[in-house]
């Protein structure tokens, strides 16, 4: 059985994934005490989940070590590790936006983003070992790693991947794949939250295109794992599959920009996963009615999905930690209503502060252990990779 791990986006909310990964590593160690290798031969990540996915993939030979490294980084996280929070940086960004809105007709160049994520680029180069990905693929400890991003230039949703052997690149409506050597630039592109972080230029077919967050227009987040031959998928999201409400409850006041923004970000980061799982469950029901002699020719096959999602509302947790953000960031959020409880969901995507991330790590650990028996059974059934599985096509709708 080929077991896949899919990590979704969500900015600072991705700290939740780290706690879940720590629990998965502990469960794997109990299920297979003689093996340190990761049970996940296929790893797919989007946005902040792409960063976690790359770290786990680079330690496919020692799953526990990879998870603990992530716990260490996220437990000591602060906003200035991800984006500039100093007064000159924040004032400069604000001045560029103000000038663009006031004198746009005379501006030669519009501002690229609200925040400068240059610190994140430095962190990725320092914290991740990209050379180990090739080593993991060469030793077959890993079958494939994929990172998704959206091209602002062409509108295509791209899955960039490295694999232990060539995989037939799929092409769907506005979705395709490219086999590349993954770099920090791919992670920056995948995690570039629209308007908040700048787009990243990547080379594609001999030309440069600008890419942003892979969660945008991601209508089938589980598709890459299926195309890489996964039979079972463990997916860790950044929110429960239910509508979010403001932490302070509903009121009749006109919504702030932060309240509107949090619904936009929810549509980017949170809505696609539930719909994709429902689609797979529908396909599974159809496969049950296909004659076994027809199923291989149809390209349809049964896929099991186990979702790990927060059992508590993250925006409620975020509301308790808003004051942990630097004063400059609180001032910026205050301008759009994001420093109040009603805007906590919007602020949660930028709340890269250790008190918040540690609480999410603990929540992810608890939620994963709540499914301990099922996870242990899946890990126990994940055997040695069968290279022939890479030739299988996923369901036709993918």
From TrEMBL:
It holds the Pfam family Patatin. Keywords: Hydrolase, Lipid degradation, Lipid metabolism. InterPro entries: Acyl_Trfase/lysoPLipase, NTE, PNPLA_dom. Residues 5-226 form the PNPLA domain. Signal peptide: none annotated. GO terms for molecular function: hydrolase activity. The keyword Electron transport does not apply. The active site is at residues 47, 213. GO terms for biological process: lipid catabolic process. A motif (GXSXG) lies at residues 45-49. The keyword Metal-binding does not apply. This is NTE family protein. It comes from Paraburkholderia phenazinium.
């Amino acid at each position: 059985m080929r077991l896949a791990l899919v990590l979704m986006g969500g900015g600072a909310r991705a700290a939740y994934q780290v706690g879940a990964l720590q629990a998965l590593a502990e469960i794997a160690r109990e299920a297979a005490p003689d093996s340190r290798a990761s049970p996940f031969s296929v790893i797919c990540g989007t946005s902040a989940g792409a960063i976690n996915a790359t770290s786990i993939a680079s330690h496919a030979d020692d799953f526990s070590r990879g998870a603990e490294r992530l716990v260490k980084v996220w437990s000591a996280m602060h906003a200035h590790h991800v984006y500039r929070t100093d007064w000159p940086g924040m004032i400069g960004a604000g001045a560029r936006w103000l000038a663009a809105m006031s004198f746009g007709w005379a501006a030669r160049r519009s501002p690229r983003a609200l925040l400068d994520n240059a610190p994140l680029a430095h962190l990725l180069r320092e914290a991740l070992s990209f050379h180990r990905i090739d080593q993991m693929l060469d030793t077959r400890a890993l079958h494939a790693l994929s990172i998704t991003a959206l091209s602002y230039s062409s509108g295509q949703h791209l899955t960039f991947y490295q694999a232990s052997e060539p995989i037939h690149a799929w092409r769907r409506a506005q979705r395709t794949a490219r086999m590349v050597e993954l770099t920090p630039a791919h992670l920056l592109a995948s995690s570039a939250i629209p308007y908040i972080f700048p787009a990243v230029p990547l080379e594609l077919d001999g030309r440069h295109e600008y890419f942003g967050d892979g969660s945008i227009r991601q209508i089938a987040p589980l598709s890459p794992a299926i195309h890489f031959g996964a039979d079972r998928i463990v997916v860790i999201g950044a929110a429960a599959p239910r509508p979010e409400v403001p932490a302070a409850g509903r009121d009749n006041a006109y919504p702030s920009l932060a309240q509107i923004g949090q619904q936009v970000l929810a549509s980017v980061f949170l809505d696609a996963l539930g719909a994709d799982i429902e689609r797979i469950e529908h396909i599974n029901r159809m496969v049950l009615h296909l004659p076994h002699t027809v199923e291989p020719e149809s390209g349809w096959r049964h896929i099991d999905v186990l979702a790990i999602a927060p059992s508590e509302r993250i925006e409620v947790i975020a509301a308790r930690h808003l004051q942990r953000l630097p004063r400059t960031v609180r001032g910026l959020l205050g301008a759009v209503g994001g420093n109040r409880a009603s805007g906590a969901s919007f602020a949660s995507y930028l709340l890269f502060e250790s008190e918040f991330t540690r609480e999410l790590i603990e929540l992810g650990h608890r939620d994963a252990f709540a499914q301990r028996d099922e996870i242990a059974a899946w890990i126990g059934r994940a055997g040695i990779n069968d290279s022939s599985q890479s030739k299988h096509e996923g369901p036709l709708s993918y």
